[in-house]
Fold:
Amino acid sequence: MIVGSVLVADRYIKAVAGEDATKNSKGKIFEANFNANDIITIALKSDASRTELEEAYLEALHQLRKRHPGIKALSAGSCVSLKSCVTDDRNVTDPDLSGYGVISNNAMHASWEGANLYALSTKVFPEIADDIYVRADVSLAAMGEFYWRLKEKKLASFDEMHRYGNKDLTVLLRNITMSYVKLSADVNGAFIYNGNLFGGKNHPFLSLIRPRRMEQFVDAERKYIRDDFPGVCVFHRDCYSGLISVGALERRLSESQETRSLVELPSSHGVWGILAYYTAQLCMAIIATHVPSLIVLGGRLVKDQANPAWPKNDIIEKVRTRLAEEIKTKMPDYPELHRPDGFIQEAACQWPVLYGGLIFSIKHDGEISYLHNHHAG
Ligand SMILES: [Zn+2]
Structure:
């Protein structure tokens, strides 16, 4: 089966098709094959209007359909917030009647509000309207990262493998919970439990949270500072995105008369200490609420796909160090926190949103859990 995946990012739209390569041994291991050279890219201007977005989106899908006429399901990931991504809200016969896949009032691209990614998708792929899904980019990224790691055997720590490895693979998966945090043009996170995306009533909005302000030594000169940066989020001012998104860090640089751009900064620059401080705090909130097996950091501030050597910020190491300081009591009953390969890891999948979209298209949102199916069957 051929499936499709499309990503609406801040400055471009990407689309790709892949082949279902799901393995069926002791429960389904969802897997897809795709060719990274086959990814379609349509650039967007930084101030692209809603019409320009819609035209670029349709263009990407038309090209995808032309190259891969047999697409049976499609998932779209959006970098901006959606009115709804609850599949049961979809109106297949009249997509304009529901808020499913409709871009909502958002901090990044206010002018995109009202663009209906679900309705646009059904225009290009009318015969699969039942099998088109729209989700937040971070949700698909979490999905992609989880199943990529499963395929590459990078998901579980040695201890977890040891504890559950001799049992049915489904037992291992049931005991792995992974959080994915996106550090990019905005900050958000999503959570995979039991091989499924945690859904709730809409996509996550981690950036609603206002972190505790940093007060510490940060830069090479060992100056003591309290972070009094006002924040750039148009909705919440000093939420996580307002303090550490790409735009926030760039604003911090310009306000401190720093002439170098983010990608030119060395690892010792104070701005990376700020990023690590708040990211560690966010990880603490995730630990407190979800106690995951693993937290994966992805997005442009972790690795810039356009410039793989940048940014040079050692963010993974810095967050690990900062987190260790936060968790003074080492939490002995939480062994995953001390897994030898690191509880905080960089995204292993190069295209987590696109890969996650392929997996989501194969897996189908309506399928409650392959574990349930497995036990039922
Ligand atoms: Zn905000």
About this structure: DSSP finds eleven helices and 15 strands in the chain.
